[in-house]
Structures are given as C-alpha cells and as structure tokens.
Amino acid sequence: MSPPLRRTALDNRLLAVLPRVALERILPNLELKPLEMRQVVQPRRKAITEVIFPLSGVASMISMGNSGDSVEVATVGCEGIVGLSLFLGGTSAAVEVFIQVPGEGLFLPAGAFKKHVQREPAFLRMLLLYTQALLTQVAQSSACNRHHPVEQRCARWLLQTHDRVGGDEFPLTHEFLGLMLGVRRASVTDTAAILQERGLIRYRRGKITVIDRSGLEKASCDCYALIAGEFDRLLLPPRKTVRRGKASL
Fold it and tell me: Is residue 103 classed as helix, strand or coil in its secondary structure?
C-alpha cells in the first residue's frame, strides 16, 4: 500500500490508533470513495455489505417511527465507523445512515471486516472502545434533546460537525438541521438567527460558517464537552484537524 494512501487512512481516528502492522494488514482491503450529500450509506433493515471509515464529512444515524417521524440519534465522522451493527453480530440495522455533509470514506467489505476483527486483537479492542464512546453519544444526545433548549442543542450539533469537516464552512439546510434537532423549520430559522446575531455563525444560501468557535462552545450545553471528552479519552490520539477553542487554527 502506498505511503500517501496510508497517510490518508490516518485521517480516520479509529484507523489512526491501530498499530502500524495491524493497519498494514487492513489497508489492502480498503477502497477510497466519495460520500455524497444525501447518500444513504446504510439503509434501514437491509443487509450490511460493507463498513465505512469516514475521512471527512458527516453521516447521520436516523431513527424512524411507524408514523413516519424521524430523529437523529447520533452522528459519525472521522472519529468513527458506519456499520457498527456488523461488529456487534447483526446483519442489518434498525437505523438509517445518510450523508449530511459530503466528504470521503474508506470502504471495507463485510467479509474482510469480519476476518480482520477475528485476526487482529488491536482492531477488536479499538472497535470495543468506539462502541463505548458511541453509546455515550447516543445516551447523552437523547438526554440533551429531552432537557436542553433548542439553542444549546443547535450549538452542540454545530460544534460536533465543525470538529469533523476540516474547515469552518459546511453545507446545511433548514430541513436537515430541523431533522437533526427534532424541531420545526420555524424553530431552526429562529435559532440560527439568534446565533448569527451574536456573531457566532454566518448562515446563508444553505451554508453555515463558524465565526466564533469559543463563543459557540459557551452557547452549547455541557453535553458537547462530555461527548467530545469521552471520544478523546477512549480513542487517542485525536485527529490533528480537530479544533478546540477558536474557529480556525
């Protein structure tokens, strides 16, 4: 495997924590592909044929009710993997995963994934630690959506996205943000306007620009720091482009 592609793989925090020898064994089975906006990368209740290690962009895990209502339960970016149900012994998932911010990812076929889990103890341990971190995100996001005002929840979500996209600007529509937060479009408009008036973000033409990262952290609830801290604690080293503090470093 060429050194450039090896370096590309290190943009995913899960792959970055693997010992070099373990990563070298997995790399030949990985394929770099684009992650397109609105692309469904894990259909609900359908066989999981591959797992994805995002390098950039953001995927959203969506829970859908029988009434047609849906809400985001977690997001996955450069710190994670799409298709974790396969690791946990399932063949399909109850949630749908689609790309909300475009980017790139490394795709690993299901058969090869299972083989490496069985043969690479470091790979197995990394996935166990990620499972713990993801469960923390799901549980904390659920509590956040239940107890915290929409402005704080919006700030938390924007911070999590900002950590993953590798830049201060990313595409985001009212429709998507409303789905992520489980609120009406009007609430999204009002909340985005408040954050913009405070000089924390700029929102125009379907794009968000983070202007004041530290101010956005102050506007968020404690859930952001708790979730980010858990991922950092379990999955060091953090990705080099992850920001803590200012909007741009």
Answer: strand
Structural domains of the chain, with CATH: 3-142 (2.60.120.10), 148-234 (1.10.10.10)
Backbone dihedral angles phi then psi of residue 213, each to the nearest 5 degrees = -65, -45
Retrieve residue 165's tokens.
């996209």
Distance from the Cα of residue 201 to its chain's centroid: 20
**pLDDT at res. 192:** 86
Is-above-0.90 flag for pTM? no
* Residue that the structure tokens 């919006």 belong to: 154
Residue 183 CA to residue 181 CA, distance in Å, equals 6
Q: Are the beta carbons of 172 and 207 closer than 8 angstroms? A: yes
- Tokens encoding 29: 């089975």
Task: Give yes or no for a contact between 164 and 229, defined as CB atoms under 8 angstroms apart.
Answer: no
CA–CA separation, 72 and 21 (whole Å): 36
78 neighbors 10 (Cβ within 8 angstroms):
no
Give the model confidence (pLDDT) of 70-97 as tens digits. 778 899 999 999 999 999 999 998 899 9
Summarize pLDDT for 133-144 with one digit per residue, the tens.
999 999 988 888
All residue ranges of the chain with pLDDT < 50 are: 1, 238-243, 245-249
